[in-house]
Design goal:
The first copy, chain A, has about 325 residues and is α/β, with parallel strands linked by helices. Chain A contains ten helices and 19 strands. In chain A, β15, α7 and β16 form a beta-alpha-beta unit.
Chain lengths: ~325, ~325
């Protein structure tokens, strides 16, 4: 089959990648649409030690699997877990000690014609959620994880730092959960802030921002040391700072403001797919307008380049014509 | 009066430093004994922008003040607050926007014959707590702050990283609060670990430690980027990492393990003096044996040098002969 493979420090289209074969309790899925995420870009920059088929955001159709899934349009959770270790046994299977992560660690990803996933990772997408919306299930689940970890009160002053893909989802989730007039998006791109403003959420350009430690909850979706430093300046004493993005290792960071201000910093990663699917079906979060470019699988290298341009939000790969 | 003053990048004895004069609601205290803290060392290395009399850990006797304090032996809280800002008004006066911090920011410290403090900062020391123990009220309050911010359950596996002054106090507090057999001190100095072991707390040398992410609560008292990296490796997914020490700015730190493991990092600073005084009076924490050297005020520069030697725990300055 055709697949976009990261190997030896390069991303390349391989037209003869072996077709995956489902084992017991696994499902074979024909990938229809895939999305490029910041983690894919980090892998291509060599920040993670992954080699194999790239990609983990997708919508596909089940080709081989249990009867109830046959021909269904599905999405898939990215953590493939053992079910046996101390983490799995204590209900924290997303943190499985032996986990593989699709397209990120030890398991081929979805920038390919076919992918194999454990049955338990697969969720059926309702008709109300199209392929282009379904791509956002994984990042939206990650955004929803914020409010699972940090209860937001209506009185809380909340600011999301970073107007990229994740920031635009996170700010909608937080505005829905808290008091919309207390929720702000801070970014560098006027056109991305406009997306939030159309949904009644105030956007502020970084150049116009007064960096004062007065926000109850700050969510850093920038993925940069510079953005994290801004976030540290905004959080009030005893406030909460949610750190969403995994970073390039070894950034230069001054953590002393967190100690002096007794800040609670909460690392936050993947979330629950069912919540995200329901949220999209109920149209509580809007993803229309977030897709800024689309490419064919054979144009995958160009798609990755495009995804790194400043104006881009979400770049799709139409795997199936 | 005589005072140890940090000015122009150097610490020097000044024999003609002006005597401080108490204003309204202030107390004049004759300093008897003072202690050197890691923050003092940081200031002398130029990491903070403070100039003036150094020092904030002390026991003294009230010379001028309200009748109920006259001639009393006292200790003093280090934050001088305004009582008016949003933080003070919301009960977080330790985070006062206009605060001065004794010997650290905007207020002369205690390595001097006399110091002036706001009345509200001053606490009488009971006879059960001698001068040498009273020196530990401030750092012990900081150690007790940990269990105010993070409730410890008996089942929690707790590890304190760093066997310095603060680590040796923190591990005693945590062993007292949780299940002593689940509490461990990790350090680099066999003789300091022995201090904990004498109190029935297990000590492990860093070289002998298996760095596995399996600890529910990790408390970083090292004050170094290297120590923080160790702490990050020890905390289990969804565990808690308490960061006690303010650092040298701009250390190179990789925060991605905190995101991937969804760790809760809690910055922790000063605590409540009354708790610390009561804990010392009840002998729930032992500080005998933590004092490794003592100097006169006129030997202050040597005292600061001594405090930076590896084998030292707490170095005292006997201000009054």
């Amino acid at each position: 089959m055709k697949a976009l493979v990261f190997r030896g420090g390069h991303l390349q289209l391989d037209s003869n990648w072996p077709d995956p074969k489902p084992g017991p309790d696994e499902v074979l899925i024909e990938v229809e649409t895939a999305g490029i995420c910041g983690t894919d870009i980090e892998i291509c920059k060599g920040y993670l030690e992954y080699e194999g088929v790239l990609g983990h955001e997708f919508v596909g159709r089940v080709v081989k699997g249990p009867r109830e899934l046959k021909d269904k349009r599905v999405v898939g959770e990215i953590n493939c877990v053992c079910g046996k270790c101390d983490m799995c046994q204590s209900g924290l299977s997303n943190h499985c000690r032996d986990r593989q992560v699709i397209g990120i660690a030890g398991h081929d990803g979805v920038f390919a014609e076919y992918v194999v996933l454990p049955r338990r990772n697969v969720h059926v997408l309702p008709d109300a959620v199209g392929n282009d919306e379904g791509i956002f299930v994984e990042p939206l689940a990650a955004a929803l994880q914020i409010i699972r970890q940090v209860p937001i009160e209506a009185r809380d002053k909340v600011i999301v730092v970073g107007d990229g893909r994740l920031g635009l989802l996170a700010v909608q989730v937080l505005a829905e959960q808290g008091n919309k007039s207390n929720v702000v998006l801070l970014g560098k791109h006027a056109e991305k802030l406009t997306f939030a403003e159309k949904r009644g959420i105030r956007g502020i350009l970084l150049d116009d921002m007064v960096l004062k430690s007065q926000w109850d909850v700050v969510v850093d979706c920038t993925g940069s040391a510079e953005g994290f430093a801004v976030a540290c300046q905004l959080v009030r004493p005893r406030g909460v700072l949610v750190l969403k993005s995994t970073w390039a290792a070894g950034a230069v960071v001054d953590l002393s403001p967190l100690v002096i201000n007794e800040v609670k910093l909460i690392g936050s990663r993947c979330g629950t797919f069912v919540d995200a699917i329901n949220t999209l079906a109920a149209e509580q979060v809007v993803v229309n307008g977030l897709i800024t470019s689309r490419f064919k699988l054979t144009e995958g290298e160009n798609a990755m380049k495009k995804a790194q341009e400043p104006g881009q939000i979400k770049v799709l790969i139409d795997v199936k014509d």
